[in-house]
What we know:
By secondary structure, the protein is mainly α. It is 69% helix and 0% strand.
Amino acid sequence: MSVSKLIILLTLASGRLMAQVPEEDIRGPKPLVEIPQPEKFPVALWAGIGGGVLLLVLAVFLWRRLARREQERSPLVVAFASLAELEKARNQLGAEAFANHAAGTVRQYIADRFGIAAPRRTTEEFFRELTGDGLQPVIAQSDHLKSLLKSCDLAKFASSDLDAIQRDELLQAARGFVTATSAPNPTAAKS
């Protein structure tokens, strides 16, 4: 027998053997395959952090804007607001506190409006400094201002009591001085 015949016989025999072995058509159940899930993004945490940062930025922005507005307020507006506040609290304050507030308001107005460090000086030191250029409104009202500050000094340092009429007069004198000196200086405008 030749080799080719032998190969043919073996091929036929193996085909018969394979036909005799039943093939399994149905396989058994396989275990579930779990697909790994990525971790969930912590949306609530990051939204809270982002919201907090946003609120902080907004608060800083509003605070700076409010501070800028406070700086932009004119000395006249600040003085009148302070005197209105003093008028509301005039019956609750003692004579010394009332006089301190009134004198402090006028001195701060002078410092802001004319650039004189009035709050840090005594009344006498302050009046010695009233010789500079641009101070004509203050110099013109210096007698009025002297009487106002002397009244305040008496209440502060001599423990003089202020009745309701004297408190009203002190408030009116402070308002009168602020109003009289609030107009722009005509000589300063020409320069």
